[in-house]
């Protein structure tokens, strides 16, 4: 059984596209069945580099990492974001996601997190006229 149905994957990818339509920032989602790193943060850092998210022109990529079976997730932003925001910047996004996750609403939690991340990015990195999509919007599945 896949982690997300095809329909749920389409809804999540659409949420990424909508979020990115308002910002020059880039949002990626990595979903795995279980952690292979010591923590969700360690996994997020690994995938951030693997997916070349540190190569955006404004260094404004955001990665949401989720390990479903371990009930673990993390949100990290690149240098350009971290230089502009408070250390606990992503806490409100995490809280929104958790409010859905605890009810077993995985897809809704991911969409809420992506939407909120896009809104936060828009405040610091509004979409520019010459903006291009620097990274794919698809979901990256690690181990299933």
TrEMBL record:
Q: Where is the TPM domain?
A: 2-118
- InterPro entries from the UniProt entry: TPM_dom
**Designated name of the protein:** TLP18.3, Psb32 and MOLO-1 founding protein of phosphatase
From which source organism is this entry? Answer: Sphingobacterium wenxiniae
């Amino acid at each position: 059984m896949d982690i997300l149905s095809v329909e749920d994957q389409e809804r999540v990818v659409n949420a990424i596209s909508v979020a990115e339509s308002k910002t020059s920032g880039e949002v990626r989602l990595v979903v795995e069945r279980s952690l292979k790193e010591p923590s969700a943060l360690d996994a997020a850092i690994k995938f951030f580099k693997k997916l070349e998210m540190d190569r955006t022109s404004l260094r404004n990529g955001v990665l949401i990492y989720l390990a479903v079976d371990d009930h673990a997730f993390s949100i990290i932003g690149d240098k350009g974001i971290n230089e502009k925001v408070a250390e606990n910047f992503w806490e409100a996004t995490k809280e929104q996601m958790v409010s859905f996750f605890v009810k077993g609403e995985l897809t809704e939690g991911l969409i809420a997190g992506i939407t909120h991340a896009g809104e936060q990015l828009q405040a610091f990195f509004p979409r520019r006229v010459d903006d291009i999509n620097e990274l794919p919007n698809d979901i990256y599945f690690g181990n299933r």
